[in-house]
Every structure is written in C-alpha cells, then in structure tokens.
Amino acid sequence: xxICVLIKQVPHQESVLKINADETWVDEKNLVFITNExxxxxxxxxxxxxxxxxxxxxxxxxGPERAGQVLKDALAKxxxxxxxxxxxxxxxLDSQGTARTFAAAxxxxxxxxxxxxxxxxDIGNAQLGPxxxxxxxxxxxxxxxxxxxxxxxxxxxxxxxxxxxQHIEVDLPVLLxxxxxxxxxxxxxxxxxxxMKKKELRELTAADLGLNADDLAPDQxxxxxxxxxxxxxxxxxxxxPDEIVAQLVEKLANEAKVL
Length: 259
Description:
7 helices, globular
C-alpha cells in the first residue's frame, strides 16, 4: 500500500503571538514551531497501516525552509521518504492554491491513501482535505477516528455532531482527514533518528511542478489581522425595577445583540 501523509509546521500552542508591523500575519521571530497536532495522528495512522498492510509512507509538507524539520521528524518516526514543496511563491497561498500545489506534486505518485489532519492549529479552517480531494478527483471522508483495511477498501469510523458516529466503507484510492485522538503517536527512536539521514528528502519548486503565477494567485487574501479594541462603558439604569428590567432587555437585544 502506498500512503501519503501531509504534515504542516505550526507555532507551538503556548507561543505568545504578536501581529507583525504590516498587520498581515503574526511576527514569527522567537516563535517555537512544531508539527501540527492532528497531522501527528495522521502520520501515526499511516505508519500503523504500513506495519499491518505493507508498503510505504511518504511524508509531504509545504512551507519555508524551517518547515523541513517536520519531514525529518516524520522520517525519524518511520516514514520511508519525504517530499518538500519549497518556493517563495508558496508563502502566501490560500487553501485553493495550497491544494492545487499539493495536487501537482502528488498526482503522478498514484497513492492508495492520502492522510492529513482534520485542520491546522494556526488557521483551523479545515478546507485543505476536501479541496485537495476534488483537485485529485478522489473520494474523501473527514473527521475520521478509526480505520480498518478491507482488501481494496477501507472502513472508517467518522465522528458526527452530538456524540454520534457512523461507519463508512470506501474504495481506494481515497483521502481521509484524521481527528486527534485516533491513536497514540510514537516518539522517534535513536535508531530512527540516525536512519533518517539516509532517507530521501526531495525538494520541489513551482517550476518543478509546472505551476505559474496564475495557478498560485489567491482567490482570497487576508486584508488585515488585528486585535479588536477593548471598549468599556458603564451605564447606570434608573427607575422602578420593572423599568430597569425593560431597559436592560432592550440594551441586551439591540446593543449587545445577545438576545
């Protein structure tokens, strides 16, 4: 079985985030970066499936030079090889552009299974999986909390709202977005860390993928990132109790808009 796992490097959850001077993103100076949490679970699920079914696991990421560390970590944990999509033109992609770039890199690999985390800890829009599946013309299942291989099919347990679950069987190839908690991610062993240095880590640019500026032009852009101003105002309500209640309800409904 040929499995691809998409991994993203994100700021540590306990990082103190400050907005940059241009108000376009956070200031990345002094931030500690780690592997996106749900992607760690996706990688572990891929490794478990390889161990039970055979085949290979290919880790893939897109990002700046520092993002290569998540691929090294994946190789140390057991991934067989890695693909690093690195180009300055990738720095401000939207979800559609990111999916289009991954699709260009993966389309000729003929993967049986593509796994990625449900969403990233930095953006959290959960768009990449479904869009990438459409780009590759693959079926997909989101919010997966369990997998079982059935020959050329996979049976998945999907989390629904309100504590409900459903089981779905789908033919390979397929794309799955993995929910955190599906398994227990492993640590890299010393042997794995040493062996990682001998594994293939291939870098691909936009030119390598045959992508031009029009292919990567975002359909949506972030106009401004800012902290909402804090506005405090004290209002004293006067009158009889029933009048005060009426005034309070009116303000909650029409000004605070919480009713």
